Amino acid sequence: MYDVIIIGGGITGTMLAYKLARYDLKVALLEKENDIADGATMANSAIVHTGYDPEEGTLKGMLNVKGANQYGKICKDLDCEYKVIGAYIAACSEAEEKHLDVLAARAEKRDIPYRYMTRDEAIASEPNLSDSVTKVLSFPTTAVIHPWEVAEACMECAINNGTELYLNAPVTGIEKTENGYKVLAGDKSFETKYVVNAAGVHAADIYALISDHTLFHTVAKRGEYYVLEENLNFVDHIIFPVPSDKGKGVLAVPTVHGNVLIGPDSSVIADPDDNGNSTQGLSYVRENIFKTMKNVPLNRSIRNFAGVRPSTDQKDFIIEESLPYFINAASIESPGLASAPAIADYIIEIMQMHGIFTEKTDYNLTRKAPVRLKNLTDEEKNELIKNNPAYGKMICRCEQISEGEIIDCIHKPCGARSIKGVKKRLRPGMGRCQGGFCEPRVLEILARELHISPLEVVLDSPESRILESENRA
Ligand SMILES: Cc1cc2nc3c(=O)[nH]c(=O)nc-3n(C[C@H](O)[C@H](O)[C@H](O)COP(=O)(O)OP(=O)(O)OC[C@H]3O[C@@H](n4cnc5c(N)ncnc54)[C@H](O)[C@@H]3O)c2cc1C
User: Fold this and answer.
1) Every domain range in the chain assigned CATH 3.50.50.60
2) What atom of ligand 1 comes closest to residue 185's alpha carbon?
3) Region 322-348 average pLDDT
4) From atom 15 of ligand 1, which residue's Cα is the shortest distance away?
5) What pLDDT, in 10s, does the model give residues 213-262?
6) Which residues does a 6 A CB cutoff place in the pocket of ligand 1?
7) Distance 395 CA to ligand 1 centre (A)
């Protein structure tokens, strides 16, 4: 019998698993995919918004500020990337300047640092702001993270403290039992006291498995991006247009890895799992980035991607005990990433209304990130390679990743099981050649380390085999 079953391994589910790890509870996280962080958590702008945007009186407003304030410490404890780079909201008209005042008033009330900048002040630090920008509101404490890294680190830490992770475990049935719920996932069934539905864009489907009463409808909204190559040095801050009813608009976001993201658009899609790119979405991004910026080197794009916002017909996050001991964490659209630590706290508060959880005596909520060769000095590299020559064999030349690092990322808790899993954890294939050189080598390493045939190695899902058959004896 489990105390808590978490459905969904995005940032909401993994952060909750991390925060529950301090308590004396039997917890399992069920994820339908072959890896965690494969939904919205994989494809977003990666910004820890400070919390000036959500409207007054909303859960979003409250949890964004509280969540953002925790990220620095959490990333330090989990040895994850966290870069405070600051955000500029660029107004281009008198009406937009007025809206800056609304955002500044919210920031003032929520104790979020901000500063107005004249056009001249702003272009002194961001010379590629467009000629139409008239005034800027700066939020200097805005940070960027690597969302998959945080989700993975949370899961790894939770596993180290006893949490169970089940991948390829799509929840297909939930039944009420005398003591709680029975959750059916693949060929397994889990008896539990609490269920937390953190299934992102499928949260409404999960709730429909246990209740005929519809509380919310999914309105999946896709956002598309360009990823520009590293070190182009044309923008240092996150550049936002003034937000509107349609959302935060098309941004330029310098990532923790030195690339710049340009996007997203926002279009409602019929299939919530459709995270492909479209001509219309990318054209919208191309046209609209020039509202706030000029000289954007879109010709240095190395790839496009799209993420699907787990939005619903409700404007706010839905985080509530919808049935006894059954908690929905739905409609977690932006700023869901920034809010995740506070969303987890809020869910735990709801659960503890039934009784306070006992803390374990021996939990550890820190972890050390695996070694990254490219961050070491020459002496440190030499020492490492002397002890293990696999660190001396370069597999990804663009991102400088060795065989030793790939082996580590396969064998650690919540390790990689697929080409995409390795890519998410270490970035081989994220450089200029986009996997042309390293992918076959990663495939060989996965086959060897997982003790499977190369024909069984998958790109992502268990069905996505890469090799068809052997063509030579
Ligand atoms: C384009 C875009 C830009 C964004 N930018 C930002 C930003 O800059 N800052 C910010 O704060 N927020 C941002 N967000 C929002 C943020 O990404 C989301 O709020 C957050 O990732 C939601 O996390 P989640 O865990 O709730 O959902 P998800 O990450 O979608 O995770 C849900 C998980 O549930 C699993 N699942 C679904 N059905 C089942 C089932 N039947 N059984 C088992 N598992 C199941 C899925 O496979 C998935 O892994 C953005 C979102 C998008 C799409």
Assistant:
1) 2-41+147-217+314-354
2) 42
3) 98
4) 334
5) 999 999 999 999 999 999 999 999 999 999 987 788 999 999 999 999 99
6) 7-13, 30-33, 38-41, 43-47, 49, 170-171, 198-202, 206, 223, 264, 307-310, 332-338
7) 31
Q: Is 399 left (phi over 0), alpha (psi -120 to 50) or beta?
A: alpha
Tens of pLDDT, residues 113-124: 999 999 999 999
Q: In the chain, which segments carry CATH 1.10.10?
A: 373-456
| Of 219, 309, 215, 293, residue with least CA distance to 261 | 293
Q: What mean pLDDT do residues 259-287 have?
A: 96
Q: Determine which residue's CA is closest to atom 31 belonging to ligand 1.
A: 10
Domain with CATH 3.30.9.10 in the chain: 87-140+219-309
Distance CA(442)–CA(1), nearest Å, equals: 39
Residue 400 has pLDDT above 90, yes or no: no
Residue indicated by tokens 């909401």: 12
What would the DSSP string read from start to end of 55-88?
A: PTT-HHHHHHHHHHHHHHHHHHHTT--EEE--EE
**CA 333 to ligand 1 center in whole angstroms:** 7
The domain 2-41+147-217+314-354 belongs to what CATH superfamily?
FAD/NAD(P)-binding domain (3.50.50.60)
Confidence band of 374 (pLDDT split at 50, 70, 90): confident
Question: Could you say which architecture CATH assigns to the domain 373-456?
Answer: Orthogonal Bundle (1.10)
Q: Is domain 87-140+219-309 in CATH 3.30.9.10, yes or no?
A: yes
- In this predicted structure, the answer to whether residue 418 has a pLDDT above a threshold of 70 is yes
Residue 30 and residue 182 in contact, taking contact as beta carbons nearer than 8 Å: no
**Using CA positions, which residue lies closest to atom 4 of ligand 1?**
44
Contact 49, 142 (CB under 8 A): yes
Whether 435 has a pLDDT exceeding 80, the answer reads: no
Known active-site residue 49: yes
Residue 470's pLDDT is 82
